[in-house]
Amino acid sequence: MMESGPMTGPVPTDGTAGEPPRSADLSGVPAKPNPTGEIGGTFWRRFVFRRPLAALILQRLGLSVGLLFAVSLMIFGGIEALPGDFATTYLGQSATPQAVENIRKDLGLDRPWSERYLNWLGGAVQGDFGTSWASKNSVSEQIGNRLGNSLFLAFFAALISVPLAVGLGMLAVQFRNRMPDKIINVISLAAISLPEFFIGYLLIMFFAVQWGVATFPATVYASMSFTERLSAIALPVATLVLVVLAHMMRMTRAAILNVMSSAYVETAELKGLSTFRIIARHAAPNAVAPVINVIALNLAYLVVGVVVVEVVFVYPGMGQYMVDAVTVRDMPVVQACGLIFAAFYIFLNMAADILAILANPRLRHPR
Amino acid sequence: MSDYKDYLTRQVMLGKMNRREFLGRAAAFGIAASTAGTLFATSAAAQEPKRGGHLKLGLEGAAATDSRDPAKALSQFMFVVGRNWGDMLVESHPTTGAPVPALAESWEPSADAATWTFTIRKGVKFHDGKELTVDDVIKTLQRHTDDKSESGALGVMKSITGIKADGDKLVLTLTEGNADLPLLLSDYHLIIQPNGGLDNPDAMIGTGPYKVASFEPGVRATFEKNADDWRTDRGYVDSIELIAMNDATARIAALSSGQVHYINRVDPKTVALLKRAPTVEILNTSGRGHYVFIMHCNTAPFDNNDLRMALKFAMDRETMVQRILGGYGKVGNDFPINDTYALFPEGIEQRAYDPDKAAFHYKKSGHSGPVLLRTSDVAFPGAVDAAVLYQESAKKAGIEIEVKREPGDGYWTNVWNVQPFSTSYWGGRPTQDQMYSTAYLSNADWNDTRFQRPDFDKLLLEARSELDEAKRKDMYRTMAMMVRDEGGLILPMFNDFVNAATKQVKGYVHDIGNDMSNGYVATRVWLDA
Questions:
Q1: Which of A106, A217, A321 is nearest residue B64 as measured by Cβ atoms?
Q2: Is A136 helix (H, G, I), strand (E, B) or coil?
Q3: What is the Cα–Cα distance from A154 to A300, expressed in whole angstroms?
Q4: Where in the numbering of this chain does the Solute-binding protein family domain appear (chain B) (predicted)?
Q5: What is the pTM for the complete model shown?
Q6: Which residue of A has its CA nearest to B58?
Q7: CB count in 10 Å sphere of residue B34
Q8: Which chain B residues have a beta carbon less than 8 Å from that of A321?
Q9: Which is it for strands B54-59 and B239-244: parallel, antiparallel or unpaired?
């Protein structure tokens, strides 16, 4: 215990080695002086100084709301720009002018887009995402189911991939440039180089078709028991783990190696600590910030970016839901999905920043 | 030989051939009487349907946006869902395409075929226990003919002006005579619902062989046997599960690993691979769907019939069927009708690939320079490849075709029926009249070849109310010749419906009406343990 005491402090001697790359942004944001310099401004500055973490969260939340508005506007504009509106796309080749006209009138598609957008926005801020134009089902209810499925899949993928990636990264550092490091690198790089649908098909081919040991398709539904669900998601989870592993693993490795070159680690080495102890107790805590950022990005991907995996494994998640809706220009659904996806990204990034600050207290009092 | 044996077996299984006829035909093809006897015995034994079991189907074409309302059913998935829980007034015969009674027991046209009287079946119960009445039928038809309706059958129904009851009977009045009216009522949107579905169009309550147990749009639908079904010759399995599988590889994997019993939409390119699995059987059925190249007859340079003829002769149909359909289809003859239609005009000479004739007409047309063809893979599977194949075969006739690949998104809005020369797909219609009325009548909504001929229109309307079949057939022949020799349609191929099942699935009916045994697959097959 004695020997490790002074070393755990987050003060690298050269001042930069342990610092996360994003620290500059972080410190810049809350410290921005209020240009008006009024009392409110002073209050805010004091608040920022006394409770920097709370200030950061507040600011981020405010920013998030603005960002969500921007996202909704972009999605709306994007769909407007696509060829064909809901009525023609939904009816497709079997559209009669009469039926198209009826649908347009019914949904108010004949009105200007600004009016339709504002109407929708009015409902959305009150928490009412409306009903799907195509199926007439409540969007909130549908999203409830689909989001639950997506989170279920993402949760188990994260549960396996995050500890595995961090563990393998630390292992790779310990055996740096030796056989285990090389094997870990080659395998994870191979996995990330293959497109996820290909990995999925390979897993299906071997585990479901050839050996018949895994459940396929991975369709989950309400009346399924928990264990049935677990068995259903085994293959998609395995695919996702393989896909996100390399990114997190390599970032862990790089960040730790970066810290390993700093003076205090050298001191620890000179003191004769074991490599494992140096990595786990001294290097890893100081390498946490960039790793958290990568993990946050990958978690976001696990929720919002897995459309292909969902399609291949016939898994009813959010991605599939949104793609179906975009295909027929089902605006209320697309908007709601888009907002939820954006909210996930924003929230996870915020969480990453907060965790980074917790891990590196210097960031709390930016100068 | 084995193909013929398969054919005979199938005929027996369909109940279309008795023992004497079977033995006679088997003998004629040199199958020994003893073999033939065994064959009949096995197929006849197989004919006895087994009841029970849980049938799982993996189907393409479902989306989270699917509507429960049969009026708005569009996808392949909802087509099958509707067939499971609902019935129409009329069905079409699986092999002849003729109208057969369903909820309507019988029907009678007036002499001009403009008034039809239908006798509605008695003692049929809806899933909620309510008995079917003529009032439910009237309300259903009214819902689908309403001008404000979003029904997919609106186009079919718009000629019906009067819907009323005459005691227990239903009387329909049309704007003009239509000999095909019963078949029009077999449209899959026209499921008879309690009170016409006016109270709750999404309830999925009908008179079909299965009750809906659960439905998650874009994911899965499950069904349980309707114990009160009014028919005994369907609904053999106890329960059905339809799983949405939009990925072709996922469907194949699910079938070959035995997780589902049946899949639809098998890509011709992968049929050979799938065939290798010993437990799998490919089920291909001739259909009315056709892949087409459409020219606007009123737009230069396609307003010149010699150029149109040149382009028709420059098409190598045989190669198209082999390469694009993998052999699962038949060559077309530049009119949208094939022998799966009743009153098909036989004996029209098959148009063949003829670079010399193409070159002759091309020269005569006086056109020079490349011809621009727009295409996209959403037009039909393999459309871009087909366009390139066409480019090659036309080159030999000295015709230069420039292939332009358009984005799939918005193809139906921006290219098809807008640009003068493009690729497209037609699903076929229950009757010749409907096919021609939809796309070849001068003022048709979807006249995608801009074929405008008053004499053709006149003939079409005459044929519509003609109840004499011989006369009608003759009229259809004249119309076919007009489209073939003067129209803007190049029709290289009719595509088969290619599906696949495990060998446990028995009793599959190759229905010419539409894909997946005309949607009835789940209600017609049984599982052999």
A1: A321
A2: coil
A3: 9
A4: 99-447
A5: 0.82
A6: A217
A7: 8
A8: 64, 218
A9: parallel
